[in-house]
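Protein Entry — a single chain follows
Fields — amino acid sequence, structure tokens
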Amino acid sequence: MKKVLVIDDSALMRRVISDIINQDEHLTVGGTANNGITALEHLNSGERYDILLIDIKMPKMDGVTLLREMNAAHIRIPSIIVSSIASETGAETIEALELGALDFIKKPISSIGEHFNEFREDLLQKVYIAAGIDVTRSSIHPKEEPAKVPVSTAATPFPRRSHMVKKGSKLVVIASSTGGPKALQSVVPFFPADFPYPIVVVQHMPAGFTKSLAQRLDEMSPIRVKEAEDGEELKAGNVYIAMGGKQCELVCKPGGTYAFSENDKPPRGGLRPCADIFFESLVNASFEEIICGVLTGMGADGCNGISLIRNTFNVKCVAQNADTCVVYGMPRSVVEAGVADKVVPLDGVTAMLIKEAGV
């Protein structure tokens, strides 16, 4: 039985989360706290906890400060952020992930209905992953599987250049999920400012967080990083983060340029954005080559899409290795499907993508 410490200033949210945890046969709530100071008292009391669920906005000591204090005291307990979607909270959630939180989940709109059921499933799934429990043993209702497809923090001083991408160019696509926001900090900042091809990142995230993720990565990187916008033309020398809560596709415009479609197509396998859907949108494109990176994440998103475009394009695929993944799901799927050309540790992903792109 894994013990969970629930940290949230809302008595209602503490009760809601506690009920979800206590109803699971593998989990139990070992304690609750209404701010970071009280949480530290629990952690310093000698009581052992297997996982922490941490709110961001709390009086006296917020979630980000709590994680800083835990790092300073060398307290290593897997933590998940349970966050709202206010714009400032999005930035703080990204900072919390940098400080060591394994993942985050968006708070439900209400404690009943479809949104609450999604929250419950996501929460239990991520707690299981963080606690090292086999998800297949759980009573969590599995999400719909993806449809099978036929066949330094200072501003960078480096100059940035970009130009329109037309037919015949190359494209780099990176797919990631659980553990991805932190993993991307070991990948994106190592692309040079003059990288000659566009890069699209499909990170599983709800609405309200990908803009903060893009801004943070942009601060760290010589190459420009931004959230993709609907109708925006694809340019080399840019990294685009697919918009959270939308499906991201690439469409060809008159004249041979490409633009993003950030749309409200339904989730696939519970995912929006979904990497498979992005890859499928490339089937009728005219890229000379597509270089894929598959990073840490649960499930198999990206595998079907990469398999599909291999029938049309010269595709190269780089997978993160098991030892450096938070969850070795998505990379394992492309390795087992035989579509991964290279398997490397996280700190070798960028160099391998650059090499595979012929730069």
